Amino acid sequence: MKLFLGDRAFLKAKALLRVSVFFKASVLLKINALLKLRVLLGICAVGLLFPSLVYAQHLVSGSTVTHSKPQNSQLTIVPVYQYHNWAPFYFQSGENHAGFALTFMEQLNQFFTKNYPELNVQFELHPVTRAELNALLKERQQGMVLWANELWFKRLFNEPYFSATQPIYWDNEAVVSLTKSPVEYSTPESLISKKVAGIEGFYYHGVDQLVSQGKIERINTNSDRINLEKLVDGKVDAVLITQTVFNYVLPGFADIDFYQASTPQDAYSRHILITPHYADYEPALNAYIASLPSNLVWANALSSYGLDDLVLPFSLDLNELNNFSIE
């Protein structure tokens, strides 16, 4: 397995960040002319930890939740909606559920129990589809949304509705091709006259407009792994794939030389989004996120993949990304 990156991206990455042993290079990302600068976005694939089935069953619930604000006298149950229901976020593994969402939630609850016992709160993971989540939010269901960016939900509301934590980590939509026929990417126009594989239901800003004009042929499946197999079989020219997922599936293609364009199709930060009823928890949630780099359980989960660097190289005002990052 080899992953090739553009030469300039490698040289700049080597100068700015420690090169990951797994990748042997970091990816130089450019967030189009909107940001007017090239920035290095070191993307970390997050790890996979298998909590016990007993804990997973306790943590994951599809039941209706009675909402209440923090009180000392009774336990507050806060629903945390998870719609990234695929590996490595959250998925079925044999008879159990697995994915780093479970590790994240386990550590979140332990952090609050230890550091904020007076809140008497428990966060409960609720796997839903994106369509189900949209319906809940339109009904003003209160809770939190994991791994999300508020820009992806602005179509649902006429005014700002969520508060957002600090970034958990940065992610991007990588443009992946084969080394023997590399596709470099700078703007959506780079993909004109090409067959591009993506995920059914995903919106790729800029690319989809050219697809609707017949200038790019988009092939949709419900699996990133299938899309990569189509690339290997020569059925598409490039694949648009979330960096987190690409890092996870890459070891399964040990004999394939992939080329990842030095500029992603899109780049964004992932947060916990908080509805108004639970806005008081934001400072404590930010404290938890800030603690993750020194969390040994989290680090061990990441190390199980050989990917133990969680890089937050910069922060961006969400207003700068308005109309840019939409999942």
Task: Write structural notes for this entry.
The chain is α/β, with parallel strands linked by helices and 327 residues long. It contains 10 helices and 15 strands. Strands 1, 4, 7, 8, 9, 10, 11, 12, 13, 14 and 15 form an 11-stranded mixed β-sheet that branches. The longest helix has 16 residues, at 100-115. The two termini are 29 Å apart.
Provide the residue-averaged pLDDT.
Answer: 78
Reported for the largest beta sheet, the result is: 11 strands, mixed
Q: What is the percentage of strand-forming residues? A: 15-25%
CATH topology of the largest domain: D-Maltodextrin-Binding Protein, domain 2
Number of strands: 15
The number of distinct structural domains comes to 2
Spatial separation of the terminal alpha carbons: 29 Å
Work out the radius of gyration: 20 Å
- How do the helices and strands follow one another from N- to C-terminus? EHEHEHEEEHEHEEEEHEHEHEEHH
* CATH architecture label name of the largest domain: 3-Layer(aba) Sandwich
Question: What share of residues is helical?
Answer: 25-40%
Overall shape: globular
Structural class: alpha/beta
Low-confidence stretches: 7-59, 61-69, 310-326
Highest CATH level, the class of the largest domain: Alpha Beta
